[in-house]
Amino acid sequence: MQQLTGLDASFLSNGARTRSGHVGTVCLLDPSTAKEPLTLDRFTQAIEPRLFLLPNFKKRLVELPLSLEPAYFVDDDEFDIEFHVRELTLPRPGDDKQLAEQVSRLHARPLDRSRPLWEVYLVSGLSGDRLAIYSKVDHTVLEGSDRDLLTAVLDLTPERRELPRRRSQPRSSGLGQLFKSAISVASQSLRVAQQTANVLRLAPSIVSAVARTVTRSVEEPAVEEVGRRAPRTPFNAAITQRRRWAFCSVPRTDVERIERAAQLSGDAVVRALAAGGLRRWLIEHESLPAAPLVAAVPADGLFARLPTQHADPKERLHALRGGAAVRPIPARLRTTDRINAFNLVLSTTAGPNVPLYLAGAELTGSYPVSAIADGHGLTIAVIRLRDRLYFGITACRELVPDADRLATYIRDELRVLKKAVRKPLEWVGG
């Protein structure tokens, strides 16, 4: 039996209709490398023997009466893997737009809290005989684990590695301990959200900047200027339950070429790509603010300015030099600070630089599907995997109905930045 932290419990209480706390990943697979077709049965057989590596994936939530304490995870005696592992087929032509639309619908649906909080779908019918895997899991299920579903089932070769089964552990008396503990209402302080490196490799968990806060003295200084004056945008409003998800990828070699020419870090180039794409989208929607946008970067605990106010791509690159556009997320945010602190969440994580396989099918792409929250209806998450950077854009459907256009503009921005650094930049070395 495992009790949720105060932070995780707060996410669950907020993870109602519009603010579901789950995150996900879309993986593209090339089934031609597998010896046998990847059917639903084979997919299930690839997952089920490895669930012992993921203890929380066979546990359900039990909440106390009157919510006196945070909920507990307890073993699910009626666990049924067929409820969690599913399949669907896209209608012809099975293009990327149809895949994104289907993922948007699936991601909008809350997880069933009477069962373990995860689902995974095998998606067939994609053009080019490709397969896709969409997985979603509540971030509380990942807490304290060094892996997620994909890291547990992926292999380094087309041949599946054999893993020894772990002996079953004696089960604790769930309800007795739950109600015994209910008599003492424990106050738990918020703590830093733990995102382990292995989980971040394949399923970055994107959360609000609130997840980076810890309880400290009330006298702590207020948010620094970069985190207090985020301008208003169309995606800084109340969200609905509906989602829009879009994706794109760019060559890693092109990003590294810009890094070298502009003397920027890889994360700074990602911010430049996001800034250019967002600027074009905001102009199209007649909503470009005069001030730069502010992104929360939860993995690094930072607020970062995105130089959307500059029309010249060289000026955008210059504005990102030297870390001047970055400030730490403070340990304590007041309610009004949270509302105005940032415009969107932007996260970049590094995945493994080696081939990966699922039941013999080679992984050819991995795109994050993130969480959003009221007031912050847009998240851009990026994962570096082998020779490409994979962007996943998650948004509220009513606030960003054309997330696919934003994905296109981010991809187009790469060409703009490559052209900008063809000649030596005057400010480099200055």
Task: Tell me the layout of helices and strands.
Layout: E1 2-3, H1 6-14, E2 22-30, H2 40-47, E3 59-62, E4 72-75, H3 81-84, E5 85-89, H4 96-108, E6 118-124, E7 131-138, H5 139-142, H6 149-153, H7 174-181, H8 197-202, H9 225-228, E8 243-251, H10 252-262, H11 266-284, E9 293-297, E10 302-306, H12 313-319, E11 326-328, H13 335-340, E12 344-350, E13 357-358, E14 361-369, E15 378-385, E16 388-396, H14 403-420
CATH class of the largest domain: Alpha Beta
Evaluate the radius of gyration.
Answer: 22 Å
Helix content range: 25-40%
The CATH architecture designation of the largest domain is 2-Layer Sandwich
**SSE string, helices as H and strands as E:** EHEHEEHEHEEHHHHHEHHEEHEHEEEEEH
Description of the molecule:
- It is built from 14 helices and 16 strands.
- The protein has 430 residues and is α+β, with helices and mostly antiparallel strands.
- The chain folds into two domains: 180 residues, 2-Layer Sandwich (Chloramphenicol Acetyltransferase), CATH 3.30.559; 217 residues, 2-Layer Sandwich (Chloramphenicol Acetyltransferase).
- The strands form three sheets. Strands 8-16-15-12-9-10-11 form a seven-stranded mixed sheet.
- A hairpin with a 2-residue loop joins strand 13 and strand 14.
- Helix 10 packs across helix 11.
- It is globular.
- About 16% of the residues have low confidence.
- It comes from Tenggerimyces flavus.
- Pathway: Lipid metabolism; Glycerolipid metabolism; triacylglycerol biosynthesis.
- Its EC number is 2.3.1.20.
- Belongs to the long-chain O-acyltransferase family.
